[in-house]
Amino acid sequence: MKIIGIDPGTTTVWYAVIDKQWQKYTLVDYGVIETAPKIVLEQKLVEIWADISWLLDLHKPERVGVEKLFFNTNITTGIAVSHARGVIIHEIARRGITLHEYTPLQIKKAITSSGSAKKAQLQKAIQMIFWLPEIPKPDDAADAIGIAYMTGLEREIIS
User: Fold this and answer.
1) What confidence score (pLDDT) does residue 69 get?
2) Domain locations along the chain
3) Which of 7, 47, 91, 143 is catalytic?
4) What is the pLDDT of residue 158?
5) Mind listing the pLDDT tens digit for each residue in 38-74?
6) Second CATH level (architecture) for the domain 2-158
7) Prediction pTM value
8) What is the pLDDT of residue 151?
9) Is 91 a catalytic residue?
10) Out of 47, 67, 91, 143, which one is annotated catalytic?
11) Phi, psi of 57 (to 5 degrees)
12) Active-site residue flag, 140
């Protein structure tokens, strides 16, 4: 089963693709969708939609996990990211793909057993889970991989 994890943003959208066969998880790919920093939001959203559509066409996932927003201090950035999430979620829903959403705390807790884990701890845990030769960098890449992994665990957690 193919699963995609997405860590949304407006200038960078990190994604990870994993394959789950029984209880074995394999990291297939991870990377970033980038938009030019100085273009208007509407154009960023069009580019994000096109790239997400391409990604979904390429990998044909059964499930997609998307990180929920966490508003910290910059609400303006959070609103823009909300728009990007909307475009991403709309395309997932339009295709009838099962969607899962997680907060950063849920992801950290599921992967490291601690909701207060630091980014480096999450990166190290991801490296160990997938037997990677190096820690995935930057930390947003590890977040996307963690989202995909957690989405794969979903049925196991519920069962």
Assistant:
1) 79
2) 2-158
3) 7
4) 39
5) 999 999 999 999 999 999 999 999 999 999 976 565 5
6) 2-Layer Sandwich (3.30)
7) 0.91
8) 94
9) no
10) 67
11) -65, -45
12) yes
- Tell me which residues of the chain have a pLDDT lower than 50: 156-159
- Going across the sheet that includes 63-67, the strands are 24-34, 12-21, 2-7, 63-67, 98-102
| Distance from C-alpha of 132 to C-alpha of 145, rounded to nearest angstrom | 12
The single residue of 47, 91, 140, 143 carrying the catalytic annotation is 140
Q: How far apart (Å, rounded) are the C-alpha atoms in residues 3 and 25?
A: 10
67 has catalytic annotation:
yes
Place of tokens 């209880």: 23
Per-residue pLDDT at 76: 62
Q: How far apart are the first and last CA of the chain?
A: 17
Q: Which residues contact 89 (CB under 8 A, 6 or more apart)?
A: 66, 99
Q: Which pLDDT belongs to residue 101?
A: 95
Place of tokens 């154009």: 43
How far, in Å, CA of 85 to CA of 137, rounded?
22
What's the 3-state SS for 51-86?
Answer: HHHHHHHHHCCCEEEEECCCCCCCHHHHHHHHHHHH
Do 147 and 67 form a contact (C-beta atoms < 8 A)?
Answer: yes
